[in-house]
User: Fold this.
Amino acid sequence: MRVGVLALQGDFEAHAKLLRALGAEVREVRVPADLAGLDGLVMPGGESTTMTLGIEREGLAEPLRDLVRAGVPVLGTCAGMIMLDRAHLGLMDTLCARNAFGRQIRSFEEDLEIPGIEGPPVRAVFIRAPWLAEHGDAVEILAAVDGHPVAARQDNMLVISFHPEIAGEDRVHELFLRDVSARVTA
Ligand code: GLN
Assistant:
């Protein structure tokens, strides 16, 4: 499985490390040519304005849309979840509220039950996290905090507003790699 990690900005190295530990071959994506032949893509957390500028600068918006529309599984975390919404790449029928948990609560941890993930709850680390303020019928909400969706799925897109990669939590990536491998072997 060849998985790309968008590496313009943000904590892409932590994702790459985790994916390699789970057996994926990882390629850092900085320019459109890096998307060729990928079986999956992770869009990491970071800062969504900077990431948007990077995507524009490198001419990555349309190639990223083509990849996702072709059905390649994508995992978007935090700023990556923002990138996929209606106001950014427009791939998911969602609208994110940035820094939604408020200035006071910049970071916090929570245990979440996520369908498809067995065993103890997922330890979720939130850092200036967004939530889904709006979503269409095609979006399945997987987990919420205080009634606000923080994990969701639509077609081949899985989004979470927290950071499993810094909590030693590998089961969300495992869930994503299951989608990747299902498509590769189909
Ligand atoms: N608050 C950031 C933004 O809006 C996202 C935070 C994160 O990715 N951890 O871009």
Summary: The chain is about 25% helix and 30% strand. The first strand starts at residue 2 and ends at 6. The pocket of glutamine is lined by residues 45-48, 78-79, 82, 98-99, 127-128 (CB under 6 Å). Residues 4 and 27 are 5 Å apart (CA to CA).
